[in-house]
Amino acid sequence: MIKGTVAIIGRVNVGKSTLYNTLSRSRSSIVSDRKGVTRDFLGGPVLYDKSGSEGFWLYDTGGFETKGHNFQPFGKEDLVWVQSQKAVEKSDLILLVFDGKDGVQHFDREILRYIQKVGKPVLYIVNKIDGLEKSVLALEFHSLGIEDPILISAAYRRGIAELYARIAQKLSFAKAVKKEKLLDQTQEAIEVSLIGRPNVGKSSILNRLIGEERSLVSDVAGTTRDRIDTYFHYKKDLYRFVDTAGVRRRTKIDDEIESLSVSKSIRAIEQSDVLVAIIDAIEGMADQDIRLVNMALKRHKPVLLVVNKWDLITEKKTNSSKDYEANIRRTFLGGATYVPVLFVSCLKNQRIHKIMDYVKKVYQQTQKRVNTALVNETLEKMVAHQAPRVVKRYSKRIKFYYATQLRTKPPTFVVKCNIAKDMQESYRRYMLKTFQTDLGFKDVPIKLCLEDKKVAKIK
Length: 459
Hints:
The protein is an alpha/beta fold.
């Protein structure tokens, strides 16, 4: 059971993201020696007891400084401030982190005053204690009125066991969290990644879906640096949405942190059940959009293409959306004609709710398993309608023996025949399309493996 929410707060570069990764046993938060790397606040469950049944919800935040000071790059100070405030408001317990090597700084005092005014339970943590005298550290932070700071090294997991115990003690009387708890420990979240170029509206759409400003939203391209994981429930299903950093061309990734963000975004694509690719209706699909979608399709990941800012298209006619979709399919999607296309306006909240219905529909198709008898019946009808050509060097046609579904996610079919290596590519495409439309996979990619009958082992 999730006992409460915990927020990690502190000035920039005191080791908040390292502590988040250590406590959550993940690498979700980007860690760097540079200041101001974390902009959004990350959230995820932490299970701390041996049985894996007790835990808390943990938030990592951006560098929390006094409002108005120039503490973040690219002029996004206010956004980070607001996000950090939201994390504090949501939390049942605050972990206020200090840097042991730097000692007490001016901003530490400012943050401490702010947190004390909030009036929530606080654990005071001194990080980066390696090689430092503990008695000296305790004395220095005693000047802030902190009687019993927890001394840790997040990077080397020193003092983490004590921290888990102190967190559990503080949360022992907290009520179980209802909004963001996992329905139960056996329920698996449907993983959905939002992908697209910077500033196409990924974060805004996610905020609409969950009903709050969860990711930073601004009109400056590239606001989201970390991949932002958000859990929420929709029609009894648990979803884990990942708002990824916009992936730019390699020539434009000249920043160490942005390069790390891109790597995490690619990893999110590989781990997702469904990809929601968002494009700008005015700008259309650029080369980078095509690369992102192809990256997903090559991995046989189902994709929902969302055309955002449709309200900005003026002088629309009855067939405007159909013409726009046809152009996208003809020009950019190539053979992936099965990819569903949805036109929305995040600004005016038009058709945003349909995204979730499409996501569930597509996910269900990837989970579908078809009876072998129906697969073979479809194969027979397919051949009766259009048989494969004669293979000239053998002077005979390819003969099919049987077919079966091997696995789901992605739906994979094995077809046994006499001379698999000589199957024409055009006929392979015909088989793929027929299986998709006739067996209920019309919106998702499927894999087709042709094998000679003599091959006993299915790869």
